[in-house]
Specification:
This protein is an alpha/beta fold and 336 residues long. It contains 13 helices and 14 strands. The strands form 2 sheets. It has a 7-stranded mixed β-sheet with strand order 6-5-4-3-2-1-14. A 7-stranded mixed β-sheet has the order 7-8-9-10-11-12-13. Strand 10, helix 9 and strand 11 form a beta-alpha-beta unit. The radius of gyration is 21 Å and the shape is globular. It binds zinc ion (ZN) (2 copies). The site of one zinc ion (ZN) has 4 residues, from loops.
Length: 336
Amino acid sequence: MSIKSTSEFSRRNVLVQMAAAPVFGAATPVLAQAPACTAAAQAAQAVLKDAKGTKLILLGTAGGPVPGRTREMTSHVMLSNGAAYVLDCGLGCTDQYARTGIPFQMLRSIFITHHHPDHNIEYGPLLIVGWVQGMPLDVRAFGPPPLKQITEDFMRAYKQTIDFWAEDFKMTPLISVDVQEVSAAGPVIQDDNVKVSATIVNHPPVKPALGYRFDFKDRSIAFSGDTTPLEAVVKLAEGADLLVHEVMYVPAVEDYVRGQVAKGRPVNFENFMAHMRADHSPVEDVGRIAQRAGVKTLVLSHLTPALEGISDDTWRSPAEKYFKGEIVVGKDLMVV
Ligand SMILES: [Zn+2]
Ligand SMILES: [Zn+2]
C-alpha cells in the first residue's frame, strides 16, 4: 500500500467516524469548541440530558446579519418527545445545534419566519451537514414563498457535492426536501407532538413575514419573528407559556448609528432610525404585548443592537414596566 493510499485510508476512517451519529450528551463535540461556547454548551447538554417535557433552546439571539459577534444570528430549536423542530437558520445555526448535543437524527422540521439573511442564510448548509450527520431524509421545511424555489436551487447547486459524499460513504443522497410554503395566517401543520400555526407580521418590505405558535402537549411557545409591535402577535401569543419576541433597545441603536455617522459611514441618522422603527419593536412595546397576551414568560431575543456591554437589566427594565410575568433575556445556548 502506498503512502498516499494509507493516508487516504485513514482519512476515510476518520471521516466515517465523524459522520457517525453523535451521542446525546457526548463530551466529544464540546471539547472541540472554543472555551467561550464550551461552558454554555456543557450547561445546555446537562439540562437537556435530564429534561422532562418540551424545551426551547436559543441557538442564536442576535438581530441582523453581522458576523463576528459574541451572539450568533437568530435560530432556535425546540425539543419535544424526541423530535427537534428548528425555527430560523441564521449563520451559526448548524454549529449551535450540534453544541446542544441533540442528534441530527432527531431533526424533524425546519421553520423559517422570513427571508432575511439573519434568519435563512444557513438553511441550506443545515440540510446538507445535517444529512451527513444522520438527519432523516423525510425532514420537512415550512416558510414563506419562495422557500420551494430556494430549496430546489440550493439542492441543484450542491448536487455534485452531495453525490460525491453519498458515493464515498454509501449514503442515500439527499435529493429533495418536502417544503410547505406558508403565506397566510392560520394552521400550518399538526403531528403527533405539536400543532403549529402562523400569523402575518409587519416587517416591510418583506412579505410575507411570519410569526409562529407551537402548541405542544405540555407547553405552548409563540415567536414574533421580526416585526413592529403588532396586535396579531398579541392574538398569536394569547395565553402561551412562552413568547419569544424580537427587541430593540432604541437608545443603544441611536448611539450605534451616531458612532457610524461619526466614522464617516454613509448612514443618515434620521433615515436609519425611521427604518428601524418601521421594522422592529422597542423593548417597552414588547412588554406591553406580553402583558396583553397574558403569557407566562417573555423571552427577549433577536437583540438589536447585539452589543456586549448592554446589561440584562438594561434589556429587562423597559419591558418590566409593563409586563408582570417572568422575563428572560435571551443568551445563546440557553435552555428555556
Ligand atoms: Zn432579523
Ligand atoms: Zn428581518
